[in-house]
Write a structure and sequence with these properties.
This protein is an all-alpha fold and about 180 residues long. It is about 70% helix and about 0% strand. The chain has twelve helices and no strands. Helix 2 packs antiparallel against helix 5, helix 8 (about 110-120) crosses helix 11 and helix 9 packs antiparallel against helix 12 (about 170-180).
Length: about 180
């Protein structure tokens, strides 16, 4: 009887430890509501400029902002760093422990210039300034010619390049500058 109680106690301890270990990374990386509100208010323009191809509100959007910290505005960078500070050690361990598992997913969702360069090889990677120029110049053209294509990323640029005859002169010029003249 005592042996059964000891076994049950050990089993319970192991199960509790396993549950803690499996949930600790998720709890340490989840931003508080105040941190989410700060990011929403401070990072709107930076999110549009650097992470528009990533669905908003999830872990992927936070990771995108974290990877683009160097190019974020000061308010947004500070809000993102506030989330990173408590979770810096687990996040670093997670990104170093699984670089082979998620490099394609992370690169596809966060590095638009890299994905845009991969599709049209001869075009080269558009800079963030070129991406911003396309966004502002093609704001009214995009819904008309590429309504079914998600904004941001290589598919959006390819759609604009394929439909450059239908674009306004300003949009066509911005797309040509970013795509090397059109590689469709």
């Amino acid at each position: 009887m005592i042996n059964a109680l000891i076994r049950a106690t050990k089993l319970s301890a192991w199960l509790a430890l396993a549950a803690f270990v499996s949930t600790a990374p998720a709890l340490s990386q989840a931003p508080t509501q105040a941190q989410r509100d700060a990011i929403k208010s401070q990072c709107r323009n930076d999110y549009i400029a650097h992470c528009s191809s990533v669905p908003p509100g999830g872990e992927a959007s936070l990771q995108c902002l974290q990877k683009n910290t160097a190019s974020l505005g000061p308010g947004c960078a500070s809000a993102v760093k506030a989330v990173e500070a408590p979770a810096a050690a687990p996040a670093a361990a997670k990104t170093e422990a699984a670089p082979a598992a998620k490099p394609d997913a992370a690169a596809a969702t966060t590095a638009k210039p890299a994905t845009e360069a991969a599709a049209p090889k001869a075009a080269g990677a558009p800079s963030s300034a070129q991406i911003s120029a396309i966004r502002s110049a093609c704001r009214s053209d995009y819904p008309k010619v590429c309504a079914g294509v998600p904004t941001g990323g290589a598919p959006a640029l390819q759609c604009l390049e394929k439909n450059k005859a239908k674009l306004s002169p300003a949009c066509e010029k911005a797309v040509a500058a970013a795509g090397g003249g059109g590689a469709a």
